[in-house]
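Quick question, first post here. What does this chain look like in 3D?
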Amino acid sequence: MLDGQEMTQPFSSAAETTLTCELQVHVVVGGEPHVSLPAAFRYHRADPYAVRLSIGATSSGPVNWVFALSLLQEGLNRPVGEGDVLVSPRRSSHGPVIRIVVRSRLGSAVLEMKASPVAEFLDRAQELVPTGTEGSYVDIDHIATLLLAADE
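> Answer (accepted):
Ran it through. Tokens below.
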């Protein structure tokens, strides 16, 4: 299914707090033929447990998903996930790929992308925030301020 496309841009980082990996994903929705769309994984040191995935551009903008970084890490090696996001490694004629199934009340989509840029992205995230140190990057005071402001 993959046509051999690599990342469209190398990794970028802003002030060593954010990582972005832009790549092509192959999207299948409702049994239709796959469509290749631009996508980007984003990781922010200030939110060390989460990864963001933005897919393509629709008339209302990109479709965004936020899920656990650990889900993506584990999904490189074995099927993992429950509910809205499932991640699993796959083999294709073009080499290893990652399959991500995303679900919402509006339906589901199957996304496939080359595994190598995702693995590189995760390695860079590990360098930015080593496993076990995530808690030291969470700004509890800022989170409390946001939660209190939401109640007003």
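The chain has three helices and eight strands.
The longest helix spans residues 115-128.
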